[in-house]
Amino acid sequence: MLDFVALLPVMGIFAGIYLPEATIVAFLISIVTLIPVIGFSSRIFSNQGYVSYVSESLGKYMGRISGIIYISYSFLVLPNIIMFLASFLFFFFSLSMSYRILFDTLFAALYMTFIFIPLSKGLSMTIKPIMVLGALEIGTIAVSCIIMFLNPGPSFPAVHQSFSIYGSSFWEAVMLGILMFSGGGSGIFLSGELRKENTSTPRALIYAYLVSGLALIIASFSILIFTGNLLPTYFNDPAILFTRLGNISGNVLLIAIIVLLIASGYNLTLSYGNALLQMLTAFIPGETGMNPGRGILAASLIFFAIPILVVSRIFFSFLYSFLFIAELVSMLYGLNHILVGISSARNGGKMLFRISGIVSSCLLATAIGISVYTSDLSEAYLVAIFLFLAIGSIIMSTNMAQEKIIKYYEKFSQIRKN
Q1: How far apart are CA 361 and CA 23, in angstroms?
Q2: Of all helices (H) and strands (E), which one includes residue 150?
Q3: Lesser CB count within 10 Å: N end or C end of the chain?
């Protein structure tokens, strides 16, 4: 639902009437990218996910780089989700702009508190709500798509209008689309908990990608049909889609979409947060063997998420901040999967996984390169931060840096114990 409400219209800013095509291309790239992950998950059973995959083929150093890249973009995903939800509620209730920062801060604090409780308790507290909410989201999107297909907009198709407010960039839309399908990979961080290790994770990945892909591709076509020549207005103000849905179907569906939008953000935050904690509990202590505890790690999410959100909202507009972080996360996600693809090409087992690793890495590198080259959204800043985080991951993964991290972590653990 968060993709349906937030990312599809943002993709449309760049892709225009080619929104369905951008969604399909992003999905196909994501499927190719998924194949090496499926290969690894069928024979490596670890809660460290990408770290364990890359480490097996390229060594512990490259595995640590993959882990730090994942940590970087996971810590960026969480404030971006909160930023969108806070802004959506802020404008939905038509609050005064003078209360914007206060509202965002209070909402973030309250939201992260409700996230902290299940994350600190363990897997059983997170998986059940994820399953229930996910099923409700898919069902509501399906109902919305049926209504949109049955109620085409005026003068469809509107092929001669200009849709982009930043300058058309199909590949930027594709990169955002790749981000849209990235959440399904959270399941690889549960491999160590499963009874049927060699089949459960690959099957879950396939189901997650196929269901989400089918739902969002159909949704992109239905939006095009439903809005007709109002499509440019929809990209600038996505609320018109839901207002019109409410006028046609009554307020029940509109309320369900709004409630499930909040639930979807909560669901996605739980998924990312749980995956991050699963990986961090094994990744951070290094050779010390000490587990920092889910409670401490969950609290650190709050420590990082709220300042990022507040700083973004003080100095930049919502749309600028949301797009900037989303594109940065998408590029870092792609970089991580390039490492996984190279790992699969080198040591992926079956020929299918080796070939898919090469193809996946080439497709992602091409998509990132074209996206950066054609970017109209503060390209220099985006590239600079991307390179800073990528190079920082390389430096932080060296043995010298790891020794210092472990040393400081041991001091922190001793202080906390005392």
Answers
A1: 19
A2: helix 123-150
A3: C
Distance between CA atoms of residues 383 and 331, nearest Å: 10
Give the C-alpha distances (Å, rounded to integers) separating 346 from 48, 54, 132, 247, 358: 20, 10, 39, 55, 9
The answer to whether the CB of 229 falls within 8 A of the CB of 153 is: yes
The full set of domains in the chain, from first to last, is 2-417 (1.20.1740.10)
Residue type, 94: S
Confidence of residue 376 (pLDDT cuts 50, 70, 90): low
pLDDT digits (tens, 9 = 90+) for 207-219: 888 888 898 999 9
**What is the distance between the alpha carbons of residues 376 and 357, in angstroms, rounded to a whole number?**
30
Q: Are 361 and 57 in contact (CB under 8 A)?
A: no
**C-alpha span between 30 and 375 (Å, rounded):** 21
CB 312 within 8 A of CB 378: no
Q: Give the residue carrying structure tokens 């993964």.
A: 397
Total length of the chain: 418
Q: Positive or negative CA dihedral for 358, 362, 367, 372?
A: positive
Contact call for residues 159 and 17 (beta carbons, < 8 A): yes
Q: How far apart are CA 387 and CA 368, in angstroms?
A: 12
Q: What are the angstrom distances between the C-alpha of 251 and each of 88, 105, 177, 243, 259?
A: 18, 29, 29, 9, 12
Tell how far CA 405 is from the center of its chain: 27
Question: Residue 17: which H helix or E strand, with range?
Answer: none
Q: Which pLDDT score, from 0 to 100, does residue 297 have?
A: 60
> 3-state SS of 299-350?
HHHHHHHHHHHHHHHHHCCHHHHHHHHHHHHHHHHHHHHHHHHHHHHHHCCC
Check if the beta carbon of residue 206 is closer than 8 Å to that of residue 38: yes
Q: Which residues contact 135 (CB under 8 A, 6 or more apart)?
A: none
User: At which residue do the structure tokens 């060296």 appear?
Assistant: 398
Q: What is the pLDDT of residue 282?
A: 59
State the pTM of this model. 0.80
Half-sphere exposure of residue 327: CA atoms within 13 angstroms, side-chain side: 31
